[in-house]
Structures are given as structure tokens and as C-alpha cells.
Design goal:
This protein is an alpha/beta fold and about 450 residues long. It has 14 helices and 18 strands. It has an 8-stranded parallel β-sheet with strand order 9-8-7-6-3-2-1-10. Helix 9 packs antiparallel against helix 13. The protein is globular, with a radius of gyration of 25 Å.
């Protein structure tokens, strides 16, 4: 009889283990990665739908070396959550489940691997967060209809003043909903190790909520620091705790200057206006395109060709910091990109243009004066065709000169730069400056002390 006891116990042990409920594993997050200082952030926006029609996380992972090679230090990944199917437009900003990953992109483990690989390369990751509304088939709507905005007869509505009929508007008067939203955001910080959020239509969500939310997230994340970006332009974005918000005014100004022949001082006025009351250490995110803008026109078409798009990028990003590159603009993708669908991008197109972006980002990274809240001096061009700005921080000094026209122009050399030999920071060559600086159509110069 004894000879049967041991095998019997072994079988029972196997059965017990097999019947044991699976544990929900939450991966520990390493504290070893430090996000860059806000002033030093070079953000690369990842639209998963330009990388692959399926398993996008794996496709992005396969391109990380190339992305890192550009010199960026932070990725913003557009919404990765399951997309609503009721009244759907296939928009990633229609979130069906705040704590899950859309199958078209991969799994949560794929996302963890992507985040870990970014951290190994010295790049942080922020996720796009949609706090203003949910999909119509989000579980919240069925279980908590009081978490949503209702019309006068009791119907849940889509966000007022929009045509976003695929989403239901959330009611921020409801404290339980607020708590659930913060809990959902905390999930991604705790279990995946992301480094912050880009918050969609932040101005439509009460600043009071953002204040509570950001404080809670940062307290929980300690000793890690989180980068918070608001898709908004309200000053209360910063008092609520955001590090950056959108430079919409400058985006409008650069388009007017490049397309409508507006005067260069349009840019100077926009730059001054966006920073005049801004607390030191806070920044405007400067961009020549993003997913919304590229749905209408990509930079090559918007600004009038490759050279014009590069001049616009320099004029936009070298004045005050807060640089954004939308994944695809570095290869000069020419046509609109509808992020509601997969759009294949040829990542091998226009290698000279990609190398130019890489060199510009390298100069930007090497010169803190370009990405800081240091001294900014503007120099008048009588004909308003050339942007000329002197940037100074401690011993770092860079002169930014950009011809925004499709014809040659010149500008008087600023006094402190006149009759000197300086360095062209893009190629390391000496430049002998006289009394005037002549620029070819859409030419730019980034000049430093020799």
C-alpha cells in the first residue's frame, strides 16, 4: 500500500497547483531611469498607425535604434487603449477601457518591453491620456451613467461645441469619476513604468481636477519624476502642475509667415506673448506639425516644400525650447496622415532630410541656450523677411538666423557678432561675419562662438 502513497500525493499536488487561481502580476517598476529635465526634453510623437497595420509595439521596438539616433530623449505614444465600437469612427481618442491595450497594437507585455527598451536607451515614455470623454461602450457608461454629462431630458451627450459624436462627455462634478480617472492613470505608471502623460483637450477638463490628479500621481511615483504635457493653452495648465502646454499661437504665426507672407515680427510677437507671464522652468511645446495638423497637411505641403519646412522647424524650435518631432516628418512624408487608419510611411525616404533633423537636434542638445529660459534678444529686419535671435545662457551663446522667404535676403549683423569669425554649428566650419548676413531662399544659420 505504501508504494502507492507517494505517486498519489504527487498527483494530488499537481491537481492542487493546477487549480490554484492565476495571480494578477504587476511588474515592478525600476527607479533607476531618470527622465530628462523639462528644459531638455526633445519629444518624438509616435502614431502607432504609421508603423504597422498590426503588432505596432513590435514594429516601434524595431525602429527604436533609428528613433534614438535622431537624438530625441522622450517618446509620446498616442492612445493605446481599446477603441469604442458603438458610433465608432475608429479614433484612438475614443477609449473603451482605460486599463487595457488595443489588440491591434499588441499586448500590455509588449508595451512593457517597449518602455523598458526606451529606458535602456535613455528615452522616457509618456502616454496620451483622454480624460474629457470616453467611448459609448466604455464600461463606465453602463455601470455609472451619472459619471457623464446629460442634456435637459436626461440623455448622455457628446462634448458640447464639437462634432465628436463617437464619444460621451464626462461630468467632472462627480467625485467618484475623478477618483476612478486618477486610479486608471496610476495603473500605467505603476504597472508599466511610463514617465508621464500628454493630456488630450486639457482645457476642457477643470484645472482643479488636474491639480489633484498631478499631485497624486507624482506622490505615488516618487522618487521617479513624471513629465506632464497639456494639450491646452490656458495659464492654469501650469498652476495645475503641468510642465508644458501647447504653443498654438506660435504654430499659427509660423503658418501665416511661411504661407501668407506675414511679417517676421509676427513670430517675435507670438514668442514674446507666449512667454511673457510664464513661470521659469515651464515651457511651451513648439512644433511645425503633429497628428492633428498632419491630418490636414504635412509640413512639406503646409510650408511650401522641404527647404521651407526645415526653415519653419528651425524658426519654431530654436527660440525657447520645447521641441516636438512628429514621427514621419523627419523623412518628409508628403501626404496627409489620417490617424484613424493605418498609413504606411517609407522610413528610408529623404535620408538627407533625416540627417538634417538629426544634426539640428544634436545642436539643440549641445547648446543649453537654445532650449532654456535664458536671455533672448530679437533683432529687427527692416523688410521683415529674416528672423534673427540671439540666445544666451551663462557662457553659451547662439545666433539663430532664418530666411523665411523663397528668395535671397540680407540683414544687418547684430553688433556683438559683427566683423568676427564664428562657427557654423551645423557643419563646424568657420564663418567670417561682416556688417551684413546674406541668406539664400529658406536658408538658416546657427552660429556660435569660436
Amino acid at each position: 500500500m505504501k508504494k502507492f502513497i507517494l505517486p498519489l500525493l504527487t498527483i494530488l499536488l499537481i491537481l492542487v497547483i493546477g487549480c490554484k487561481p492565476k495571480e494578477t502580476h504587476v511588474q515592478a517598476v525600476s527607479d533607476s531611469f531618470d527622465v530628462p529635465e523639462v528644459a531638455d526634453v526633445v519629444l518624438y510623437q509616435v502614431n502607432p498607425r504609421v508603423f504597422a497595420p498590426s503588432n505596432s509595439f513590435q514594429a516601434i521596438l524595431g525602429r527604436l535604434d533609428s528613433i534614438e539616433d535622431l537624438g530625441v530623449n522622450m517618446l509620446w505614444i498616442m492612445p493605446i487603449y481599446p477603441i469604442g465600437e458603438v458610433k465608432s469612427k475608429n479614433s484612438p481618442y475614443s477609449v473603451r477601457d482605460y486599463k487595457a491595450v488595443a489588440p491591434e497594437y499588441g499586448t500590455i507585455d509588449d508595451l512593457r518591453m517597449l518602455v523598458e527598451s526606451c529606458h535602456e536607451r535613455g528615452m522616457g515614455v509618456i502616454l496620451d491620456w483622454v480624460a474629457n470623454h470616453t467611448a459609448w461602450d466604455n464600461v463606465w457608461l453602463e455601470q455609472h451613467p451619472d459619471w457623464y454629462t446629460h442634456d435637459s431630458v436626461g440623455n448622455i451627450i457628446y462634448p458640447p461645441g464639437t462634432d465628436w459624436t463617437d464619444v460621451a462627455d464626462l461630468n467632472y462634478d462627480n467625485k467618484d469619476m475623478r477618483a476612478a480617472m486618477i486610479d486608471a492613470m496610476s495603473f500605467w505608471v505603476d504597472s508599466v513604468g511610463i514617465d508621464g502623460f500628454r493630456c488630450d483637450v486639457a482645457d476642457q477638463v477643470p484645472a482643479e481636477f488636474w491639480n489633484e490628479c498631478i499631485k497624486t500621481l507624482r506622490e505615488k511615483a516618487k522618487p521617479r519624476h513624471l513629465i506632464m504635457l497639456a494639450e491646452g493653452a490656458n495659464p492654469d495648465n501650469f498652476t495645475a502642475g503641468f510642465d508644458l502646454n501647447y504653443a498654438w499661437e506660435f504654430m499659427g504665426a509660423i503658418a501665416k509667415v511661411m504661407r501668407d507672407n506675414a511679417k517676421v515680427n509676427t513670430l517675435v510677437n507670438a514668442d514674446k506673448n507666449e512667454y511673457k507671464d510664464l513661470e521659469r522652468g515651464k515651457f511651451k511645446l513648439r512644433f511645425t506639425t503633429n497628428h492633428d495638423e498632419s491630418t490636414k497637411e504635412t509640413p512639406v505641403k503646409l510650408y511650401g516644400g522641404i527647404r521651407a519646412s526645415m526653415a519653419a522647424f528651425v524658426a519654431t524650435t530654436m527660440l525657447h525650447g520645447g521641441m516636438l518631432v512628429y514621427g514621419s516628418q523627419e523623412v518628409g512624408y508628403p501626404e496627409p496622415i489620417n490617424f484613424f487608419h493605418y498609413v504606411p510611411v517609407n522610413w528610408n525616404a529623404n535620408p538627407e532630410m533625416r540627417n538634417e533633423y538629426k544634426k539640428l537636434i544634436s545642436v539643440y542638445n549641445d547648446h543649453p541656450a537654445l532650449r532654456s529660459s535664458g536671455k533672448v534678444s530679437y533683432f529687427d529686419d527692416d523688410n521683415n523677411n529674416i528672423l534673427c535671435v540671439d540666445r544666451v545662457l551663462n557662457n553659451d551663446n547662439v545666433l539663430v538666423v532664418v530666411n523665411v522667404r523663397n528668395e535671397a535676403h540680407s540683414i544687418p549683423t547684430p553688433g556683438m557678432w559683427s566683423n568676427r569669425t564664428v562657427v557654423n554649428l551645423m557643419n563646424g566650419m568657420d564663418v567670417d561675419l561682416g556688417s551684413r548676413i546674406m541668406l539664400e531662399p529658406y536658408q538658416y544659420l546657427l552660429l556660435g562662438n569660436k
